[in-house]
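Handout, section 4.2: multi-component inputs.
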Amino acid sequence: MNPRALSAGLVLVLLAILVVAPLAGLVNLRGLPGYQPDDLQFWHSAYIRRVLFFSLWQALLSTLCSVLPAILVARAFALQPPFVLRGFLLRLFALPLVVPAVVAVMGIVSVFGSDGWIPLGRSLYGLNGILLAHVFFNLPLAVRLLLPLWQIIPQGHWQLAEQLGMNAWQRWRFLEWPALREGLPGVVLLVFMLCLTSFAVVLTLGGGPRSTTLEVAIYQSLRFDFEPVRAVVLALLQLALCVLVATLTFRMQRLPEVEISIDPVTGDDRRWHKSTNLVLILLATLFVTMPMLSMLLDALTGPVLEVLTSVALWRSVANTLFIGLTAASLAVAAGWFLLGYSASLVLSGQPGRARVVDLAGSVIYVVPPLVIGTGMFVLLSAHVDVFNWIYPIVITVNALMGLPFVIRTLGPAMRQNHARYHLLCESLALEGWDRFHHVEWPLLRRPLGLAMALATALAMGDLGVIALFGTPTTATLTLLIYQQLGAYLIPAATVTAVLLLLLCLAVFWLLERAIGGRVDA
Amino acid sequence: MLEITRLEYAYPGTSGSTLRFDLAVSNGEVLSLIGPSGSGKSTLLNLVAGFLAPASGHILLDGVDIVSLPAASRPVSIVFQQHNLFPHLDLYTNVALGIDPSLRLTRSQAGTVAGALERLGLDDLQRRKPGELSGGQRQRAALARVLVRRRKILLLDEAFAALGPAQRAEMIGLVKNLVQENDMTALLVSHQPRDALIASRRCAFVSGGRITVLQPTRELLEQSQIPDVRDYLGSI
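Output:
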C-alpha cells in the first residue's frame, strides 16, 4: 500500500476515534445520573433558551463589529501608497493569533476597566467586554484574510479604471466589491464560528446569567452545578450549531491561498484618501496594540517578585510548555501526513478527495473542543477518575485545535513542493529519509517552523479543556490566571498574563528560528 | 529496442475514450511525438516512465516487459520542461542524485559526475545553484544527470520549450549525440515541428489518444495529406 495513504489513513482513523468516541458518550443520555425524559425537550427550559439566544446574538454582533471595520482597514492597506512600517504593521496584525485569550482579556480590562485609559466601568463585564475582546482577535484576522482579495484584482483593471476616469465609488462597485464578495461570506462565517465557540473570553468577561454562552454553560454545568445531563444537552446543541455553520463555511469559503504582499495594489494619490486610509490603519493598530501595552505597564508596577517566586507559577510554566510542545508536535505530525497524502491525490487528478482529507484536519470547527471535552468527561468518568487523565485529554484536544492552523500554514508550500518535484523524486528513486533529508526538509522547513510555532503558541494559550479538567497541580498558566482573577488577585493575574505572553512570543520566535532557520539564510 | 504493445489507459473519472498506443523505437533512435494539446503525448511518456499505470498492454525493452516495474526501478530517465533541478542544491549535487539518492558516492562515482558535467560544458559551474544559471545551462545539467544514470530510455517532455531556437537546436544536437553514443532509445515531445526535423528520422503524430501517423519526419511535416496533421501544422 502507498505509504502516504497508509500514514494519512492512520491519522484519519485516529481523528475519527477522537471525535466519534466522545460524541458516543454524549448521545448516551439515558445512562447519565439524573436523566429525565423531559430533559430532551430543551426548548422548554428558559435557561437554555436564554443561553442559546445569547450565544447567537454575541456571535452575530461580534462578527459585524469585526468584519465591517476590517473591510475598511484591509482596503486602506490595499490602496494606500507604500509607507514606512507597512510590512511591520501587517505582521503586527498577526499578533492576536499568538496572544492567549485570557491575556487579551487582561489587556482589555487594563484599557477599558475602571482604572483603565478608557474606563467603561462595570459595563465592561458582559456583552460589551465580550465584543471588545472578540474584535481584538477577529478584526486583525479578518484584515489578513480580506487583504489578498484586493491583491488578486488584475493590475490591468486598475489601469483601465483610471483610463475610464472612474471615481472611488465606481472603482468600489466595478472592481473591489466583485472581488470582495467572493471571499467575504467565508470570512464572515469563519469569524462567526470563532465567536460562537469562544470560551475563555466569555468565561472571564461574561458568565453571569445574562452573558452566558453554550460553551460557558457546558463548563458551569460540569464543574459547578454537577448537572451532566444539562451539559450534554448544551453540548449537543452547540454541536448542531457548529455543524450547520461549518457546512456553510466549507461550501462558501473561497479564500485565495495568496501570501500577503507587502506592496499595495495601486496607489491613490488623492490627499484626503491617503489621510483617511492612514487614520483607519492607525486606529486599528492602536486597538490591537493598546491592550498589550497597557497590560505591560500595569505589570511593571505589579507584584512581579511575588509572582516570580511562586511555586505555583513555575509548576504552571512547566505544564504549559509540556502541553504546548507535545500538542503542537502531534498536530504538525498529523498535518504533515494528511497534507502529503492530499498533495499526492491532487497530482493524481483527485482534487475532491484531497479536499476531503484537508477538511478532516479541520474537524475541530465542526466539533468544538469543549464538546469533545464534555464527551470525554462523560465517557471516562463512568470508568476512571478523569482527573488522572488530564494530560492525554488536554494534549489531544489542543492538538486537534492546532491542526487546522498547521494545514493552512503548511498546506500551500507542501502542495507546491509536491507538484513541482514529486515526479522528479520518483524518477530518481528519492524516497523515505533521503527524500525528506535532501528535498522536503530544506524546501519546507520555513513553513514547518511557522506551523510548529503557531500550534505551540495556540496550545500554550488555551483555556478550554484545561478549565474542565485542570487541578492545582496540573494547572497551566492560563488556568492559573483564571484562578487569580477568580480570587480578585488582579495585579498578580496581570503579571502572570504578561509572563505568559512573553513566554508564548519567546517560544514562537525560538521554534520558528530553530526549525525554519534564519530568514536571510 | 523499445516496443510499446497495445498499451491502454483511461483517465480516472472519465467514462469514454481509452488511450491506446502501439510503437517500436530502435536503439540509438530519437522518435519525436507531435500533436495537439491534450492528445495524449505526455500521458504516453508518463506511462513509459511508470508515473501512470496502464489498464493493459506491454512496454518491452529489449524483449523484457517493464510495465509492472515501479518508476524508480525502470530503466528510464526523464527531462521535464521545468523543475528538473532542486533549487537549494548545487549543480554537482543535483547531478550526483542521479547516481545515488543518498549521495554516498564512491570516488569512481564522483569522477563520473565530474566527467558528465565536463562533457556538458558545466565543469566551471559545479557549485552554482540552479537559480544562478540560464535556462540552457539548467537543461544541460538535467542532461548531465541523464548521462550519469546510464538508463536505456530517455524521455523528453517539452524539455526545451522555454529555450530560444538556437539553444533548442544545440540541446537537441546534444541529445542525439548522447542517445547514439550510449545506445539509448529516446522519445521527444515537442510543439515545434522544427525540433522534430532536427532530432528525428521518424515522427509520430498523436491525436485523440492514438498514434495516427508514423512516418519519416520530413514526409510527415512537409508532404502530409492527412487532414488532422495539416490542421495541426497549419495552426503553428
